[in-house]
Every structure is written in structure tokens, then in C-alpha cells.
Amino acid sequence: MIEEPEKNEETPEETPAEEPAAEEAPAEEAPAEEAPAEEPPADAPAAEAEPEEALGPKERRRRARSQHTGEALPQRSPEERAAARAEVREKKAAERRRWRQRSRERRRARPKTEPLAGPEHGPGRARVRQGIVVSDKADKTITVRIDVTRSHRVYKKIVRSSSTLHAHDERNEAHTGDTVRVVESRPISRSKRWRLIEILERAR
After folding, report:
1. Cβ contacts of residue 19 below 8 Å, gap of 6+?
2. What is the pLDDT of residue 113?
3. pTM exceeds 0.70, yes or no
């Protein structure tokens, strides 16, 4: 009988413990009300959309492939597939034609430059070249270096090259370092197909 009053004393103590729990519940609900205030990142999707515009074509294709659902395309007959291929080819051919037309127009608009190589020759006219004597050791023969400067037909870079030829010098007038002009002639010896015309400048 003595234990019964003790049980009665515990019951009032449990009720106050439940009251703080009830008080904590509104405190937890307060952050839930603040959640809408944390939603301003509505501008975030717009900010992320801007970098997507600057993506390259390969990255755009990769992202498009990653978004593919994996659904199979509908069945097509061989005639439909052939027609689709023909349409794609025709579109690519049209793009190539436009590109070629634009490149031709750019070439026409480009200023024309005179050829930097030696003088041209035609049928019945002998070629004339100007060069520098690099050797006069042989009798009645000089070795002439012909420097050729031309513009690359694609890259327009100035390309320099040189070649040597043997020319006939009847009086042994030319010496090493002289600038001379030679003309094409009949074969005079095994290696001589040119003849000295004049000496333009003497070596200093």
C-alpha cells in the first residue's frame, strides 16, 4: 500500500516533461517558414544558360547524346533510308558549292601581283636568266647561280630557291661574284646549254 502513493507522485512529474516537447515543436516549424526566403536562386538557371551558348559544337553534340532516352527509331524501308541519305548528301553538296563560290570570289577580289620569277618565254624565244657567278675556274665556262623568288600559291609565303647552270664565256670576261645575264642556246658541251650575254655588275 505504501508503493501506490509513489506512483501517484511520478505522474505529475511526467506531464511537465511533455510540455517542453510541445514547446519545441513550434521552434522546429519556424525554419520551415523561412525556407521560401532561401529560394532566390531563381536567377541561377539563367546564369547557367549563358555558358551553354558559348559551348563548342562537339560539347553540344555530347550533351545532346547524353539526353537521349534510348528509344529506338521507327522501322524504315530501304527506299526511305536511301531517300534520307540522298537528302543529306544533297545538303552537303549545296554547302560545298556555296563554299567554293565564296572562295572563288575571295580569290578574284585579291590584288594580283606580278610573278617574281624570271622573265617568261614563249615559242621561238630563248629564255634569259640573271644570276651571280660562283665559279670561273674552267676555261671559257662559268657557273652561275640563279636565285628564284616566288610566292606560294596557297599560303602566299615568299619561297626562295636557287639553281646552278654552266654558261659559255668565250673571252673569260666574267669572274666570281659578277652579276651576269645568260641566254639559252644550243648544246655547247655535255653540261653547257647557256651563253653569256653581258656582265651587269662587277664584283667589288
Report:
1. none
2. 64
3. no
What is the C-alpha to C-alpha distance for residues 178 and 181, in angstroms, rounded to an integer?
Answer: 10
C-alpha of 5 from chain center? 96
Among candidates 68, 66, 50, 49, which has minimal Cα distance to 58?
A: 66
Q: Per the structure block, which three cell numbers stand in for 86? A: 540522298
**Which one, of 138, 194, 190, 140, lies nearest residue 164 by Cα?**
194
Three cell numbers, residue 37:
526566403
Cα distances (angstroms) measured from residue 147 to each of 3, 31, 75, 160: 126, 87, 68, 7
Question: Using one digit for the tens of pLDDT, what is the confidence trace for 151-167?
Answer: 999 999 999 999 999 99
Which cell numbers in the block locate residue 27? Answer: 521552434
- C-alpha grid cell for residue 117? 620569277
Report the C-alpha gap between 167 and 180 in whole angstroms: 10
| Of 109-113, 137-141, 156-160, the least confident | 109-113
* Of 195, 202, 146, the residue nearest 174 (C-alpha): 202
